[in-house]
Amino acid sequence: MSKIKTFSKGGIHPQKYKITSDVPITDAGIPDMVVIPVRQHIGAPAKILVQKGDKVKVGTLIADADGVVSADVHSSVSGEVTKVEDAEAGSGYYEKMITIKVEGDEWEENIDRSPNVVREISASPEEIIEIVKQSGIVGMGGAGFPTPIKVDVPSGKKVDCLIINGIECEPYLTADDRLMQECAEQIVIGAKILNKALGIQNAIIAIDENKPKAIEAVQKITRSYVGVNVQVCATKYPQGAEKQLIAAVTGREVPPGCLPIDVHCVVQNAGTVFAVYEAVQKHKPLFERVVTVSGDAVNNPANFRVRIGTPASFLIAKVDPQQDVGKMIFGGPMMGTAAINKEAPVTKTTSGILLLKQTSVVDPVVSACIRCATCLDVCPQGLEPFAIANFVRNAEYQEAKKIHVLDCIECGCCSYSCPARIPLLDFCKLAKYEIRKKK
Amino acid sequence: MSSLILYNALILAAIAVVAAVVLYFAAKKFYVKPNVLAEEIAAILPQANCGACGSAGCQDFANKCAAASEEDFRNLYCPVGGKDVMAKIAQKLGYQASSHEKTVAVLRCRGNCENAPDKVEYIGLKSCRLASRVFVGKTGCPNGCLRMGDCVRNCPFGAIEMDPKTGLPRVDTEKCTSCGTCVGICPRGLYEIRPVGNNGVRVYVACNNQQKGALARKNCKAACIGCMKCTKVCADVTVENNLSYIPTTVDAEQYGAELAANCPTGAIIYTGKSNEQN
Q1: CA-based nearest distance A430→chain B, Å
Q2: B121 at the A interface (CB within 8 A)?
Q3: Which of A426, B94, B166, B238 is the most buried (most CB within 10 A)?
């Protein structure tokens, strides 16, 4: 086994709370109704193809990618479209969504539902990119960047390294961990498929040190696949962030304003790779994903295989929540977003739904900066959060831009470790919004 | 010994004479004639440097005034100083004073603690601009006031303050110079610059919610529901996207009381007398 690697600059060690690491993935079942947002990715919302009253099957295309930075959306259930209008998202804002009333569970005919693993990769690189595009696959780690763009290497750029991100450094979340334990071979085949599309021979599956079972499961498989290797990384947050992972695995630094492709790397989340496998080998578009439902206000935390569009309340009812839930988070506790609507649907990027106790949710008392420079020490991007905060307080956004606030990855290490409890990340986010608005 | 002191003194004196001559001619050669008029106008201006006039600060505005013809001068106006300051400048220039109406910023939201109670808690930086990106707001209204006071903190004249009773910001008509900072800062675009009106009587729709009536009412009792009743009182009132708008041309003294009385949700604010009696 090669040396355990990690990124050099900053980082923190929050409590892990990986309580669902040994809970097998179970099918969450199908709710009576799903609400599928047409924008589950970065970029333009997809164009709606269905009308009220239309009958759809599982896997039917219901919204078409609008432009390059966009993604197709498929129905996750079979039944009748009852509403095509704005519905309340987790943030409380109203977004375009398609509501489907479930009738039975009838899948599109070409989807291979058998459990056997298809090892032979028959599709050509061009076909793979086309299938990934038509399957509506986006980055499932949280950002939701459309995968076809990453796989389709622009001419003039060179790729020499495919990194599969199995780090999952957020506390509580175990969706990727379980997926690697249970579907290691599919993920490795998925990596080979992406290798073929990118025209390279090697892939590195990076897994956090705190997932020994996943490491073991994947390593067992990689022995029989040439070019796919496991890289164990030291447990440190935010190891799973794209730029930090590249730094850890290859030692290369992504320059400000550049993409991983500029340092010849492509990073894909383990869940995304699994979705690529299913799309290419099983003709199954992205309509379900693994979601961890956990938190300290949950009695029976679990990992579910969930159809996209399932309301959060449907999953929460299955895990026996306690009475004093103070906060619901979509995603991880570090970078996820608090949701105010229990009926908000699971999207392609929802890796977890967390319920935290009222007592765990504290509004910290903010005091003055004591100039301890902890925020500088922990920032994995090497920024100066306290200085950015000072510029933002005085509305000097251009000054904040000069000290590279746009390179902030919003990991929250600064806010997490600030002894004065200053919401430093909020200042950075505000600066980024204001600078982008002025453009 | 004494001759050494003498030589030193002479050399220094010679340098002084040469330097004085050089400086004298340099001062003649590079003399810049001060724009006395612009300086005097700048002295009249409030020196807030807010940019509300459209110029880059008060000195720039003064330069523009000094250089303006009588025709151009009519288009120049300092909203902060108002009529008085413009009259003084006009006098200085020997022009006719322009006749601008005093304006004031109004908040188009009545989602106070009573009408739109908080549904959720918010933990984090108390900034409307940040919160509006993260979620819909504590009240649940996607167009309403977030009540975190970005306008209060950014008003250069201290004219806006949080009303602890209502939870909403309140504009001090006296202090407000309608510089427009709040219009730009509010992420929900709730501020509008409107004429103060005769004796401070004005009427406007204090709502920005564009949802359908039932949805809007779910979060706020004082939301405009687009019922069109106000359009029957005065034909100039328009309703677009379920939201009513009263143009500034509508005579507040003539229609104001009736418009406010006819609004079923109380979304129309009338600052005239009948309102005080209520």
Answers
A1: 6
A2: yes
A3: A426
- CB contact under 8 Å between B135 and A338, yes or no, is yes
H or E element in which residue A63 lies:
strand A61-64
> For domain B103-270, is the CATH number 3.40.50.300?
no
What 3-state class would DSSP assign to B89?
helix
Q: What is the rounded distance in angstroms from the CA atom of residue A278 to the CA atom of residue A112?
A: 9
Q: What is the CA radius of gyration of chain A?
A: 21
Phi-psi region of A144 (alpha: psi -120 to 50; beta: other; left: phi over 0): left
CA distance B112 to A34: 35
Choose from A429, A432, A437, A438 for mutation: most chain B CBs within 10 A: A429
* Shortest Cα distance, chain B CAs vs residue A364, angstroms: 8
DSSP A68: S
User: Cα–Cα distance between A394 and A258 in angstroms, integer?
Assistant: 29
Cβ-contact B270, B252 below 8 angstroms: yes
In tens, the pLDDT along A358-392 reads 998 888 899 999 999 999 999 999 999 999 999 99
B36-93 maps to CATH 1.10.15: yes
Taking the model in full, what pTM does it have?
Answer: 0.85
pLDDT value at position A418? 95
**Gap from B223 CA to chain A (nearest CA, Å):** 17
> What backbone torsions phi and psi does residue A402 show, to the nearest 5 degrees?
-65, -30
Which tens digits make up the pLDDT trace of B133-163?
889 999 999 999 999 999 999 998 899 999 9
- Specify the pairing of strand A352-357 against strand B191-195: unpaired
Q: Which residues contact A221 (CB under 8 A, 6 or more apart)?
A: A184, A185, A188
A59-65 contacts, C-beta under 8 A, 24 or more apart: A59/A107, A59/A108, A59/A111, A59/A284, A59/A285, A59/A287, A60/A108, A61/A134, A61/A285, A62/A36, A62/A98, A63/A36, A63/A38, A63/A98, A65/A133, A65/A136, A65/A146
Q: How far is A429 from chain B (nearest CA, A)?
A: 7
CA distance A91 to A110: 36
Question: B17-41 burial by CB neighbour count: b if 16+ within 10 A, else e?
Answer: eeeeeeeeeeeeeeeeeeeeebeeb
Q: Where in chain B is the domain with CATH 1.10.15?
A: 36-93
Residues B13-37, mean pLDDT to the nearest whole number: 92
- pLDDT given at position A2: 67
Token look-up 């067992």 returns A220
CA pair distance B207, B190, nearest whole angstrom: 8
Do B140 and A92 count as a contact with CB atoms less than 8 A apart? yes
* Chain B residues within an 8 Å CB radius of A423: 124-125
Closest CA to A344 of A28, A70, A94: A94
For A279, B132, B152, the CA distances from A132, given in Å and listed in that order, are: 7, 34, 50
Q: Does A429 touch chain B (CB under 8 A)?
A: yes
Is B67's Cβ below 8 Å from some Cβ in A?
Answer: no
CA distance B242 to B219: 15
Quote the DSSP letter at residue B116.
S
> Contact, B119 vs B146, CB < 8 A?
no
Peptide bond into B195 cis (omega under 30): no
Q: Is A390 on the interface with B (CB under 8 A)?
A: no
Type of residue at A261? I
Element (H, E) at A181: helix A175-182
Please indicate whether, in this complex, the C-beta atoms of B135 and A93 are within 8 angstroms of each other: yes
